[in-house]
Amino acid sequence: TRRVALVTGGASGIGQATCRRLAADGFLLAVGDLDAAGAADSAGPDGYAGALDVADESSVDSFVAAARERLGRIDVLVNNAGITGDRTATVLHTTPVAEWDKVIAVNVRGPFLLSRAVLPIMIEQGAGHVITIASVAGQVAFPGRSAYTTSKGAALQLARSIAVDYASAGIRSNAVCPGMAHTAMTSWRLDDPVLRAEVEARIPLGRVASPDDVADLVSVLASDRLHYLTGAALVIDGGYTAL
Ligand code: NAD
Ligand code: KPC
């Protein structure tokens, strides 16, 4: 039987590249996104796709139930959907409260709700792997992005908490911590040659990541290998945090 991966935020960027890669690896995909049409493209004809708001409890619960019903099992959960907040979500004292709440809702409540819905299925299977796309911003502060930095620290700890609490159930949990990647999230910055040069000057490998660079690591994690790896924070940042 084909292994099944559920990917949130799979319509764009890192999530889209991850879907492409996991499909090539032989996975059946369940893809949820606010962008339902984009999710359907990423899921392919034999996958399951739907509109999903990861911050909404009933949306998450019905999406996970429908995915399980259609595909029979969930081997891998990729908590990928995430937002930075808009351009007003900068340093702490000028961040609008509503923008703060939105970032925390998608980036922290989201992985909580998805994991909460999927873990009972994995417990029943006696196996599963939760992969959470955090960020280097969960380990070092990203300048001028207070809500985002805070949320990614929490997402990383959520991944560790799951690793500790569900190891005995045969379930592993790991966090992926990408550095700056070129996606819709960061194109406002990276499409500007001056801002892009500022970013790349601080990366030892001299370039930002492509979505495929990150998907490559998710693919290795999702493979049925590395059985001793759990609770890890895997940094993939071109050396950014090593400097
Ligand atoms: P992106 O904006 O290209 O894609 C994000 C996707 O998530 C979109 O399809 C969007 O519709 C979806 N989404 C947003 N809110 C949602 C919600 N409430 N429910 C369901 N889907 C929702 O962004 P990306 O750069 O591919 O980011 C993917 C993940 O990678 C995020 O968690 C992000 O924080 C993380 N990340 C990105 C970078 C980077 O530099 N781009 C670096 C480190 C980590
Ligand atoms: C490194 C990472 O997770 C992205 S943080 C910067 C996003 S933005 O300020 O919108 O360029």
What does this structure look like?
The chain is α/β, with parallel strands linked by helices. It has eight helices and seven strands; from the N terminus they run βαβαβαβαβαβαααβ. It has helices at residues 13-24, 36-43, 57-71, 97-125, 146-166, 187-190, 193-201, 211-222, and strands at residues 4-8, 28-33, 48-51, 76-79, 128-133, 171-178, 233-236. It has a seven-stranded parallel beta sheet with strand order 3-2-1-4-5-6-7, with helices on both faces. α3 runs parallel beside α4. The radius of gyration is 17 Å and the shape is globular. Residues 8-9, 11-15, 33-35, 52-55, 80-83, 106, 133, 135, 178, 180-181, 183-186 line the site of nicotinamide-adenine-dinucleotide.
Summarize the structure.
The chain is of the alpha/beta class.
Q: Percentage of helical residues? A: 40-55%
- Label the structural class: alpha/beta
End-to-end Cα distance: 44 Å
Bound molecules: nicotinamide-adenine-dinucleotide, (2-[2-ketopropylthio]ethanesulfonate
Strand content: 15-25%
Poorly predicted regions: none
Largest sheet: 7 strands, parallel
Q: Give the overall shape, derived from the CA principal axes.
A: globular
Beta strands, count:
7
Question: Strand-and-helix sequence, N→C?
Answer: EHEHEHEHEHEHHHE
DSSP summary: helix tally: 8
Strand arrangement, major sheet: 3-2-1-4-5-6-7
Q: Name the average pLDDT.
A: 98
Work out the radius of gyration. Answer: 17 Å
Annotation keywords:
243 residues; seven-stranded parallel β-sheet; binds (2-[2-ketopropylthio]ethanesulfonate; globular; alpha/beta; binds nicotinamide-adenine-dinucleotide; 8 helices
